[in-house]
Design a protein that fits this description.
Order of helices and strands: EEEEEEEEEEEEHEEEEEEEE
Strand content: over 45%
Structural class: mainly beta
Helix content: under 10%
Shape: globular
């Protein structure tokens, strides 16, 4: 089932592959496949990790921090330690908190910020105990206000996380047929002041009667943050790339492809 994997991460010169796509139905969504050291094309026999015994708990995200891999499922968090197949081990960080929003976990300093199912959290290492983390809520009201913006549905990728300009950004992807607007909402959190704010991206509308507009991806390149934004309406779907520079209003960078004409 390796060919069904949709996400991967490199850790100590080994490639860790996992499904990460909640719309697919692999037999073992809780499994991580691991390549040979320095050979990303070779998977030794039985070189995989079943993070949880319950296959109904798919892996939604893996993030590297402090020489460990932090593994998220919808209701729990684990950590993988070790730099070789022989000394690799796994331990549970939390059995109550996890995330469906697999694109939200983002490294911010020594912490990982992510949108959980009932809060926005900061996963923070315990400075007094080895292999121990604290899960600290930082945005209950924010999550409750924007989690179901535009409606309720089954899409679990409604939050996209990114660290930019000393702030944690969460792009909100509204549900289809919910938000009739060409505005894309960016939530932003300042770790220093522990304050939340918002930015609004005004997308150039080339779609008649837009049904909804939302973020479908985020990344940082140098001093610029980019968001991919989807506009849908009147049978037309268009994806736009928007650029954001510090202290400037978000601007459209380019229309980089049309899905339909």
């Amino acid at each position: 089932e390796i060919n069904k994997c949709r996400r991967c991460i490199v850790h100590f010169n080994r490639l860790f592959l996992y499904y990460g796509d909640l719309n697919s139905s692999p037999a073992t969504p809780n499994r991580i496949f691991v390549t040979e050291f320095n050979d990303f094309g070779y998977f030794p026999l039985f070189s995989y990790i079943d993070v949880v015994s319950d296959a109904s708990q798919p892996i939604t995200n893996i993030t590297r921090i402090r020489n460990e891999l932090v593994v998220f499922t919808p209701t729990s968090i684990y950590a993988i330690t070790g730099d070789t197949q022989e000394n690799t081990s796994i331990y549970q960080i939390n059995d109550q908190v996890g995330t469906w929003y697999g694109w939200s976990p983002t490294v911010v300093g020594n912490n990982i910020l992510f949108a959980g199912n009932d809060n926005i959290y900061s996963l923070e290492p315990n400075q007094y105990l080895l292999n121990n983390y604290n899960v600290v809520p930082i945005g209950t009201k924010v999550l409750n206000k924007y989690r179901d913006v535009g409606g309720t549905g089954s899409s679990y990728s409604r939050f996209y996380g990114c660290y930019y300009n000393n702030q944690y950004y969460l792009g909100v992807r509204p549900e289809p047929n919910g938000l009739i607007s060409t505005e894309v909402l960016l939530l932003k959190y300042s770790p220093g002041t522990k304050a939340w704010g918002t930015d609004t991206l005004h997308a150039t509308n080339t779609v008649n009667t837009p049904i909804y507009c939302g973020i479908t991806g985020m990344l940082v390149d140098g001093d610029t943050m980019y968001t991919a934004n989807s506009l849908i309406g009147d049978g037309i779907s268009q994806t736009l790339l928007a650029s954001h520079t510090a202290n400037d209003d978000p601007t459209i960078a380019s229309n980089y492809y049309d899905l339909y004409n």
